[in-house]
Amino acid sequence: MDAGFWLATLKVVHLSALVIWLGPSGGAWMVLALERRECGDPSVASHYLYCGFLRLLWLQHVGVLVLLGSGLLLLHLHGFAPLEYRWLQIKLLLVFLVILPIELADTWLGHARLPRVFAAREPGTPYTPEELRALRFYRRYFVPIGLALLLPTVVLIMWLAVAKPVWGTP
């Protein structure tokens, strides 16, 4: 098989990783928000939905790792020559300055901080003040601010990758 086949396959992996990164946990978060609105929080249902959401974060974070790894491999296969293009420089800058810090914080919150809230508690029992602080921070501040930064950044990155605008050389 020629290099073109492997390059095309890697691009499919890259785009698939994008879907895996954004899709499942985004859908689970919307279901959790709707359930909390309908049943209140804490409830037995919200407890199990939170636990399911936290499990889906593993898939999300594997997706972002595959996305980053396949992107770096694509750069390598092109001999890093595309770094001469301003659109790619902007794309990489957005990845490293916006997406990576949000994902690192989300990884810590989703795999270290929030699982402690749900590890030993009985479903439906009231939250302790510490548990409530962790949940409020995540759902009132981190998620809305993260999404407000992440969604336009992802759209801009996708536009840059598809349009490849020419702004001259650096």
Describe what you observe in this structure:
The protein has four helices and no strands. The mean pLDDT is 91.
SSE blueprint:
Blueprint: H1 3-39, H2 44-77, H3 86-119, H4 129-163
Short structural description:
The protein has 170 residues and is mostly helical. It is built from four helices and no strands. It has one domain.
N-to-C series of helices and strands: HHHH
The separation of the N and C termini measures: 36 Å
Count the strands?
0
What can be said about the biggest beta sheet? none
Q: Spans of 5+ residues with little confidence (pLDDT < 50)?
A: none
Overall tally of domains: 1
Q: What's the average pLDDT?
A: 91
Q: Kindly name the structural category.
A: mainly alpha
General form: elongated
What's the alpha carbon Rg, rounded to whole Å?
19 Å
Beta-strand proportion: under 5%
Q: Helical segment tally?
A: 4
Helix content: over 70%
Q: What would the keywords be for this entry?
A:
mainly alpha; elongated; single chain; 170 residues
